Amino acid sequence: MGCSSQNTDTNQLDDMVRMQEIKPYLEQWDSSKEKINRLSDIEEDLLMLIQALSAQTDIDAVPEPLKGDVKHIKYGSENIAHIATESIESKSIIDAKKISYSVQIARYMNAKRAEAQVQRLQQQYPQLSAILQYQINAQTKNSVTLYNLVAGPVQTQKQAAQLCMFFFRLGNRCKLTTFKEG
């Protein structure tokens, strides 16, 4: 019976030591809860401000010095990718291309994710893919490359707005933009 009592005492001592080790962390957590909640609120406010600012600013407009870094990748219903890299020397050719209405439906930091989304859209909506093309427009600024996924072209701005509503209902943020053909 002495061994049983000793084990119980040892277990209680271990529990007390663990509580003493954990107690500072619990106190730190309790004191930090309010700060974490405040940071979360600030983050939500900041996100709302960014969305409001982006609605007022054309953040997709490529500044003149960066126009040489824009790459257009087109995906059509035949599922064939055409890659065209634009340069400053070919600016006159670009200006001569027909510009149509379209919608930007996503922006990715990784080209493979953008391509995977194109594949998903083509599989899930084959009728839509039969009449639309998808472009992935790479845009580099300050050594950060973003890949904008654009769907189109459509004839009118009204059709582009309807297409935008379709993608919005799928959970995508969308924005009217232009579709470069050529």
Give structural notes.
By secondary structure, this protein is an alpha+beta fold. It contains five helices and six strands. The chain has helices at 2-56, 91-96, 111-124, 126-131, 157-169; strands at residues 71-75, 81-85, 99-108, 133-141, 144-154, 175-180. A hairpin with a 2-residue loop joins strand 4 and strand 5 (144-154). The radius of gyration is 27 Å and the shape is elongated.
Question: Hey, roughly how much beta strand do the residues contain?
Answer: 25-35%
Number of helices: 5
Instruction: State the helicity in percent bands.
Output: 40-55%
Distance between the termini: 91 Å
Strand tally is 6
Low-confidence parts: 77-96
Q: Within the largest sheet, what's the order of strands?
A: 2-1-4-5-3-6
Radius of gyration: 27 Å
Order of helices and strands: HEEHEHHEEHE
